[in-house]
Design brief:
Elements lengths: L4 E3 L2 H9 L7 E8 L5 H12 L7 E5 L4 E5 L6 E3 L19 E6 L2 E7 L5 H19 L1 H4 L10 H4 L3 H4 L28 E8 H10 L4 H15 L10 E8 L13 E8 L7 H15 L2 H12 L12 H16 L4 E8 L10 E8 L4 E8 L2 E8 L5 H12 L5 E4 L6
Parallel strand pairs: 5-6, 9-11, 11-13
Antiparallel strand pairs: 1-4, 2-7, 2-12, 3-4, 6-7, 8-14, 8-15, 9-10, 13-14
Helix pairs in contact: 1-11, 2-3, 8-9, 8-12
C-alpha cells in the first residue's frame, strides 16, 4: 500500500474531540447468516475486502494544528467476539491501531468503526462487500459470478465530500431552544445497554400510510410520545427534540466511504391535545421542510464554512478540540434523542438463501435508535445509557398494543 495521509473531515473532528469512555463514538453494523461463521474463511475474506478500501486501512495521529489519518500496513483480522457492542476502537490504549474491527459470534458478522473513519452508510458498504466475499469463498461454484454493489475507485472512497461540495451558501445557524434532556441514573461502569427490536416492514408501512406520513416520521412521533410520557411534569414546558442524521449522498454525486452526513432536528412542545396521528403529521411536515434540498445544502455549507474562516488553521489543536467539545456540548443540550434511519439494505438476490438479516446500532451517552430493514424485517437497534427502560417499554409496548408484531432481544449489563 502506498504511503499516504488524509485530512480528517469536519464531522470526524467532532468525534475525535468528544469521544469518551461513556460514548466512544463507535457504530456497529452486523449481518446474520443462516449458519455459524467460519473464522478462517472470514479472516481471508476480510483480507481481500480490505484491499478495496484503502481509506479504511489507516491510523489516526495528532499534529500540532490538526489530526490526520495515515495509511498503515497493519492487516485487519476477524476475531471471535469478546467485547461488548460498540466498545472503544480508538483511545489512549489503542494508539496506532486500525479504526475498525471485525468480529463474529455464532452466525453473525460485526463491523465496528470509530465514527471519525466513516458513517453508517460507509460502514454498510464495507460490510456488504465483506459478506459477499465471505460467501463466495464458502460457495465458489454457486456464487463466483456474484458481485456486491459497485465499490467506487479508491480516490472516490477517500474523498472529503464536505470540502468537495462546499458552496459557501450557508448563513448563521438558527438558534434552537434547549430541549428536554432525559433524566434518570446512568448505568454503572460507563456501560450501555443494547436492544434489538424486530418488526414487520409491511405492517409498519401500512400504519404509516394510513396516517399519511413516512415510516421515519411515524417512528419519530412514537418515540416522542414515549419520551413525553416519561417526562417529569415540571419539565414538560421544554420541547422533545429528535435529531435525525441525513445521508448527504442523496443530495450530492458522492461515492465517498468517509463521513458525509449532517443532522436535522424535529421538536415539539406538548400541550396535551396531541394524538399519535396528529403528532405524526406535525413531525412529517417539519421533516419534509428540513429535508428540502435548499435547507439541506445550506445546513451543510453552514457547518463546513467554519473550516474556511480566516485564522482557524494556525490555532493549536488542543484549543480547537476544547472549542469543538464546548460547541458539541451546547448543541447536545438541544437534542433529546437520536433516530437514524439507514433505510432498506439491498444485497444481490443470489445471496438471499444464505442471509437472515442486518442490524445497526451506535454508542451513546443518552438514547440512540438505528433503523434498518432487509426485505420484510425491520430492526430497531436501540442503545441506552440509562438504568431505567420506561421510554423503551412505552415505545415498543404502544406499537405492540396497536397490533404490530414486536420481537425484542437485549444485552446483559452489570447494574452494580
Amino acid at each position: 500500500m502506498a504511503d499516504t495521509w488524509y485530512r480528517v473531515d469536519n464531522v470526524a473532528k467532532v468525534f475525535i474531540a468528544t469521544n469518551s469512555r461513556r460514548d466512544p463514538r463507535v457504530f456497529r453494523v452486523s449481518c446474520t447468516l443462516n449458519a455459524d461463521i467460519d473464522g478462517a474463511s472470514l479472516d481471508e475474506a476480510l483480507r481481500l475486502t480490505a484491499r478495496q478500501f484503502p481509506n479504511f486501512q489507516v491510523t489516526l495521529h495528532r499534529g500540532l494544528f490538526w489530526n490526520y489519518l495515515e495509511s498503515t500496513r497493519k492487516e485487519p483480522h476477524a476475531e471471535p467476539e469478546t467485547l461488548a457492542p460498540c466498545a472503544p476502537v480508538y483511545g489512549p490504549e489503542l494508539r496506532n491501531e486500525l479504526l475498525y474491527r471485525v468480529s463474529y459470534y455464532g452466525p453473525r458478522i460485526h463491523v465496528e468503526m470509530f465514527h471519525a473513519l466513516s458513517d453508517g452508510n460507509g460502514g454498510l458498504i464495507f460490510l456488504k462487500a465483506l459478506v459477499c466475499q465471505y460467501l463466495k469463498l464458502l460457495e465458489p461454484e454457486k456464487l463466483a459470478h456474484v458481485v456486491p454493489e459497485s465499490v467506487a475507485p479508491a480516490a472516490d472512497l477517500a474523498q472529503d465530500s464536505f470540502r468537495q461540495f462546499y458552496g459557501a451558501r450557508g448563513g448563521r445557524g438558527e438558534r434552537a431552544p434547549r430541549a428536554y434532556r432525559m433524566r434518570g441514573a446512568k448505568l454503572p461502569y460507563d456501560q450501555t445497554q443494547f436492544f434489538e427490536a424486530h418488526l414487520n416492514v409491511k405492517q409498519l408501512l401500512t400504519r404509516a400510510r394510513a396516517d399519511g406520513v413516512t415510516l421515519t416520521s411515524w417512528l419519530g412521533a412514537r418515540l416522542m410520545l414515549a419520551i413525553h410520557a416519561e417526562t417529569p411534569q415540571l419539565e414538560r414546558r421544554r420541547p422533545v427534540v429528535i435529531s435525525l442524521p441525513v445521508n448527504l449522498r442523496n443530495y450530492y454525486p458522492s461515492e465517498t466511504a468517509r463521513n458525509f452526513f449532517n443532522s436535522i432536528r424535529v421538536g415539539h412542545v406538548f400541550d396535551g391535545t396531541e394524538t399519535a396521528q396528529s403528532l405524526a403529521a406535525a413531525f412529517d411536515a417539519t421533516l419534509k421542510y428540513e429535508l428540502s434540498e435548499e435547507r439541506v445544502k445550506a445546513r451543510m455549507d453552514s457547518f463546513e464554512q467554519l473550516e474556511h474562516m480566516p485564522g482557524i488553521k494556525p490555532v493549536p489543536l488542543f484549543i480547537k478540540n476544547k472549542t469543538v467539545g464546548l460547541f458539541t456540548w451546547r448543541e447536545n443540550q438541544r437534542v433529546t434523542a437520536t433516530l437514524s434511519n439507514l433505510g432498506a439494505i439491498k444485497t444481490p438476490p443470489e445471496l438471499d438463501p444464505w442471509l437472515r438479516g442486518f442490524t445497526a446500532m451506535a454508542s451513546t451517552s443518552t438514547m440512540f435508535v438505528c433503523v434498518s430493514s432487509w426485505h420484510d424485517d425491520l430492526v430497531l437497534g436501540i442503545s441506552s445509557a440509562y438504568r431505567g427502560t420506561g421510554v423503551l417499554r412505552r415505545f415498543l409496548g404502544d406499537m405492540a398494543k396497536d397490533g404490530l408484531d414486536v420481537t425484542l432481544y437485549a444485552t446483559e449489563v452489570n447494574n452494580g
